[in-house]
Design goal:
Mean pLDDT: 83
Strand content: 5-15%
Shape: elongated
Number of domains: 2
Helix content: 40-55%
CATH topology of the largest domain: Methane Monooxygenase Hydroxylase, Chain G, domain 1
Distance between the termini: 49 Å
Structural class: mainly alpha
CATH class of the largest domain: Mainly Alpha
Strand order of the largest sheet: 4-1-5
Number of helices: 7
Largest sheet: 3 strands, antiparallel
Amino acid sequence: MDWCEFIAEEEIVEIIPNFKYDKQLNLISGDFGPFLPSVPVKVPLWLALNLQRQHKCTIVVPQWIQELQRLQEAQENSDTLIEMPSECWREIMHLFREQCKSMPNYSSLIEKRESILKSSVHALFRHAFESKSLFLTDVTLHNVSRGELQLLKSFVQKSFAQFQALRNVYVYSKQ
């Protein structure tokens, strides 16, 4: 389990329990319950998945997941990343897909966003190469989720370190 999936499991979702537990669960992330059959209650995703594995509840699919088809169409028509409804949307989708096999696959949305991210990184390096400055101090990417940043982090860090080393060699060779 990566850290993005760990963070995604804290997302609050609604479940419909089929068991009775009159007390509240006092957890680090908050108090949840009471659990009454057929009465919706909000819990962290990790608890919802655990209860569903034990056949003790049904998870109500969040509204934003139902809107992913619209978001997918909007992303297809955009050259920039659109804002997603959750910071950990990819990981949540993955966790839901494991539990609910009938859920649609949004792999084309993921591929389109990765394609835009790659072109953004290429543009960033092109800008860095054309820049007269020896060092770039910050980078801004808009509408990028935590999971997408995690995909880029290692590559961008290593690439910038290599880029700076090459630039230093170039500058010192000119002197």
